[in-house]
Amino acid sequence: TEEISLEQLSKIFYLNGTYISRQFKKHTGLSIRSYILAQRIALAKTLLSEGKNVSESCYLSGFYDYANFIRSFSKSVGISPGQYKRLRDV
Fold it and tell me: pTM of the entire structure?
């Protein structure tokens, strides 16, 4: 849920950022950014299923821009977070 940058990863692992990106994609099939986004969406889905509201789920899953959260969630899941929550509440 914290902000993660390639620069931070480079410092932690003492490796070039480009090398880290290429190796990550080679082994996972995803870019680091795509992987992080998928993890945040998965966490948001869990939070919504547990009864958290959309706003809480947004911030607790590491999104700091509500509009970006709605857009990213909808694109990834196919429905808005509000619709997802309503389906889970039924």
Answer: 0.89
